[in-house]
Design goal:
The structure is a homodimer of 202-residue chains. Chain A is mostly helical. Helices cover 76% and strands 3% of the residues of chain A. Chain A has 2 domains: 52 residues, Orthogonal Bundle (Arc Repressor Mutant, subunit A), CATH 1.10.10.60; 148 residues, Tetracycline Repressor, domain 2, CATH 1.10.357. Chain A contains 9 helices and 2 strands, in the order H-H-H-H-H-H-H-E-H-H-E. In chain A, helix 5 runs antiparallel to helix 7. Chain A is elongated. The relative contact order of chain A is 0.09. The structure holds a DNA duplex (30 and 30 nucleotides).
Amino acid sequence: MPGTVSKRRARTRQRLLDAALEVFAEVGFGRSTVEQVCDRAGFTRGAFYSNFSSLDELFLALWEERSARMLGDVRRALADIDPADPESAVRAAIAAAPVDDAWYRITAEFTAHALRNPGLRRVMAARERAIRDAILPVFVTALRRLGRRVSDESALGDALVAVHDGTAVQVLLQPDDAAVRARREALFRNVLDAYSTPMESA
Amino acid sequence: MPGTVSKRRARTRQRLLDAALEVFAEVGFGRSTVEQVCDRAGFTRGAFYSNFSSLDELFLALWEERSARMLGDVRRALADIDPADPESAVRAAIAAAPVDDAWYRITAEFTAHALRNPGLRRVMAARERAIRDAILPVFVTALRRLGRRVSDESALGDALVAVHDGTAVQVLLQPDDAAVRARREALFRNVLDAYSTPMESA
DNA sequence: CGTATCGAATACGTTCCTGTATCCGACCAG
DNA sequence: CTGGTCGGATACAGGAACGTATTCGATACG
């Protein structure tokens, strides 16, 4: 059966990816080695090179997988929201893209890496756009339910992503500071407000 | 003269730092080696170890130096602004913290690095706060001149930094997209607007 | 069953990098 | 001019990681 991979192979691959996630989070991608990943996964380097041609390739595969999963999580979390309760919908949207320390470290380093490689950069930009476009409709419909309409959806999307990323660093740098978290949420509200206008009631 | 360093030593040190900046920007801190830095600087590893005990130490020194310089640049740029021209003051403030590709890559990686190390994390958080507090007054006085007062300065400061960082990534990922840059500036204006309220005229 | 194939393990040579211990030259003081 | 010291160069031994070529065992299939 061409195009199929054996279960054995798939399991090995997955364990390598999982191990790599841990190693990258602990020592950073740059400082990670093929050997460390293999040790952690319980395989030898032979197994690694039978599945990936380089650490870079694995890195990309890992990022694809994780960001796809996150995108799925977001879509799923937003699929069964209560249309009558826009407040909780927005809360669900924010919760769906949580500030995860380890994952932030990895994406930060991957972003830096991607900025050095035009091909990767485009892949990353596209993925960012996909995530933005998945989340955006939720906010738009929620706002509509609150009697507000969004004029420029792209602008709102970019603003939300920027605020999400920018404030995530602050929250992670000062994890014990409740005020920082509060300001983060306030900023979200302010942006939603600034990018939508009250509708004439029907 | 205790506490002093010879000129020769200072020059060597500086050349090593400059070379390191280039190397880090090109291959990333994690993938950089002592040898690469020395080759680039035109020294041997002996000179390196006579100045730094490890790449990590140099990395920290480099970041200190650069971020201090940037802080100085900001302060200087904002020292001689025209008080009668708040528009250009804000423009100067934005220009003072430019979106520099190489520098962004390094700080991104350093941030990830710092998040793994509580001591470094606190150093970084303090530095971020210093930068924020240096820029903040400019915006506050500029807004006042425009007849608006800022109620919560900390909130505005955090918001500006978050927007700056969050949108910087977007700009770097889509360097040719003018719309992204435009949205970035619009977001700045929106934030300035949201975090200030019109004053009763005197 | 037996056999063919697939995938992980092994083993190898090589390159790169590390850190230290020592050397040598330049610069300064007297 | 001369001795001392400071700072970068040299040299050395060791270790880590790489990528490949090959082996060997397991699994699927006739």
